[in-house]
Amino acid sequence: MSGPGTPDWKVGDVLAEKTLPPISRLQLIKYAGASGDFNPIHTIDDAAEEAGLPGVIAHGMLTAAVMGSLLSPYLGIGFVRELYTRFSGMVFVGDELRVGGEVSGVEEAEDGRLFSFDVYVRRGEDIPASGSVVFAVS
Amino acid sequence: MFEKFEKFERLVGLASEPVENVVERGAVRKFAEAIGDSNPVYVDGEAAKNSVHGRLIAPPTFPRTFDYGSILGAEAPDNGLIHGDHRIIYERPLFVGETVFCRVGVSEYFEKEARSGTLGFLVTERFGETPDGERIFTMRDTVILTPAVRATMEKRS
After folding, report:
1. CA distance B28 to B42
2. If you count Cβ atoms within 10 Å of the first and of the last residue's Cβ in chain B, which end, N or C, has fewer?
3. Is B4 near chain A, with CB under 8 Å?
4. In a 3-state reduction of DSSP, which class is residue A48?
5. Are A58 and A39 in contact (CB under 8 A)?
6. Nearest partner of B79 among A38, A61, A127, judged by Cα
7. ipTM of the complex
8. Residue A84 region, left (φ>0) first, then alpha (ψ -120 to 50), else beta?
9. Cα B43 from chain centre
């Protein structure tokens, strides 16, 4: 697979922030189908309104997936060992999310190196989700 | 009002029977597309062969799509549940095509007072194992039950 070679990440290194296409209703419908989470507050306006929301909201696990995709360019050389997402706000249709992170630890393990990252998903100055990723490079 | 919501408290320690799941190639492709991350290691057999894994792998959040079985009495209404946090820990990548036995258990229930009333915190753990019982991943989720959900469920029971 083409892609970056073995990264030489050090604590404090910042990963390039990634800007995603605005969340669309079609994406929420696709995610509902692909994940099997058909809670209508994610796809149908009336259901969202009934739940007291100003509009349909993205699935929390879609936001988690977006966070997990930060390390995607490196999957040819390793894998996501751990992903932690804390949900702190709602994501709406039209939101333009940016995902980024910073190296918080480097550890030698039996089967390779473990890189830890503090990661976030932001919309402007708002942080609808933050957490951490441990990436294993063998 | 200060009495804990027993319905959830008594679920702690309960677990489902394991359910057989298969990491289907088409399901992974659709999932990757939906999350906007069609990485070649998820979808392109050739690219995957040249990766360190030597085969197709699934996106880190894919295990959310599996059937984990159900715990009798743990059904909650859709509306009013808030996903608090999510953690998944892998022992190794999840491979496309493999069979995974999945189960879910309730590990904790506690409550906190908030301005809006009493909030319930339900912590569940989900496990994925090979047919030989080798652990592939462990998931831990906190779901927050709003006062509205508790009211609905109290009416039902």
Report:
1. 7
2. N
3. no
4. helix
5. no
6. A38
7. 0.94
8. beta
9. 23
Chain A residues whose CB is inside 8 A of the B19 CB are: none
- Range 32-61 of A in CB contact (< 8 A) with B: 33-37, 39-41, 47, 50-51, 60-61
Asked whether the beta carbons of residue A41 and residue B79 sit closer than 8 angstroms, the reply is yes
Half-sphere exposure of A94 (CA within 13 A, CB side): 3
Q: A107 and A69 in contact (C-beta within 8 Å)? A: no
- Other Cβ atoms less than 10 A from the Cβ of A5: the count is 8
| DSSP 8-state symbol, B52 | T
Q: How far apart are CA B98 and CA A59, in angstroms?
A: 26
pLDDT at A1: 41
Given a cut of 80, is residue B4 above it in pLDDT?
no
CA–CA gap between residue A136 and residue A78 (Å, rounded): 5
DSSP state of A60: H
Summary mean pLDDT of chain B: 90
Lay out the sheet containing A112-123: strands in order across.
Answer: A14-19, A98-109, A112-123, A126-137, A78-87, B81-90, B135-145, B117-129, B99-114, B19-22
A87 and B64 in contact by Cβ < 8 A? no
The verdict on a CB contact (< 8 Å) between A30 and B93 is no
Residue B134 pLDDT: 98
Cα–Cα distance for residue pair B88/B127, rounded to 1 Å: 10
User: Structure pTM?
Assistant: 0.92
State the pairing for strand pair B81-90/A78-87: antiparallel
What's phi and psi for B131, nearest 5 deg? -60, -20
What was the pLDDT predicted at B81?
Answer: 80
d(CA A12, nearest CA chain B) in Å: 23
Angle subtended at Cα B129 by Cα B77 and Cα A81, rounded to the nearest 5 degrees? 90
